[in-house]
Amino acid sequence: MPIPVLTIDGPSGAGKGTVSRLIAKKLGWHYLDSGSIYRSLAIAVQKASVDLAAVDKIVKVAQGLALEFECGDELIVRLDGEDITNQLGLEQTGGMASQIAALPAVRQVLLKKQQDFKQLPGLVADGRDMGTVVFPDAENKVFLTASAEKRAQRRYKQLIEKEIDANLVQIINEIEARDRRDMERATAPLAMASDALYIDSSDMTIDAVVEEVLNLIR
Ligand code: DC
Fold first, then answer.
1. Where do the DSSP E strands lie in the chain?
2. Is the CB of 61 under 6 A from ligand 1?
3. Quick one: which atom of ligand 1 is closest to the CA of 16?
4. Rounded CA gap, 51 and 42, in Å?
5. What is the pLDDT of residues 40-81, one digit of tens each?
6. Domains by residue range for the chain, with CATH
7. To test the ligand 1 pocket, which listed residue (21, 58, 98) has its Cβ within 8 A of the most ligand atoms?
8. pTM of the model
9. The dihedral of CA 35, 22, 216, 13: what is its sign?
């Protein structure tokens, strides 16, 4: 029996995570947050005190990456048994993940780890290259985006709510730098699959986006 896969790709802060989790819950499907795998690797590399220029060593860390995911209302991630959920969301972790993600050898190692998430009754996979590289045969693909300003405002609001100091202009600059790096890299860049549905969430509520994606599946 074929296992249904819905891929949701797009830049950071477009709402992919929230939308993917809600849809996975509604459908009772598994959820792959591929960004959290790159982010966890960034943390593992930092813990092992490996320099970002030492590609061979980063690949070794990727090969031995021992992650556990607990998918409740919030995604909890453990690295070697230690809960690293709080460190995962830091902008610094995202920036480092984006640099490591540009290494083709690293992407190759992580490919199978991601494909293993495809299990019955179905999978919602969120990332940058889910519909183009990891699950090119998925029957339902979405490219979810929003303007850099809107994405920065959402991120700013999240940080302020968590009482973390934040600067809107700095966040816009960081988001634009990460977009550029993710789109311009040679291997599996952020790009829309030719058969994906394009959704710009700049002026949409989360519920409206979820509804549009569910309509696609129906
Ligand atoms: O989605 P995110 O912000 O958690 O992802 C963090 C970084 O990981 C992102 O800037 C690029 C990289 N990434 C990737 O290259 N491919 C994916 N499928 C997911 C994330």
1. 5-9, 30-33, 67-71, 75-79, 82-83, 123-127, 140-145, 197-200
2. no
3. 1
4. 11
5. 999 999 999 999 999 999 999 999 999 999 877 788 999 999
6. 5-217 (3.40.50.300)
7. 98
8. 0.92
9. negative
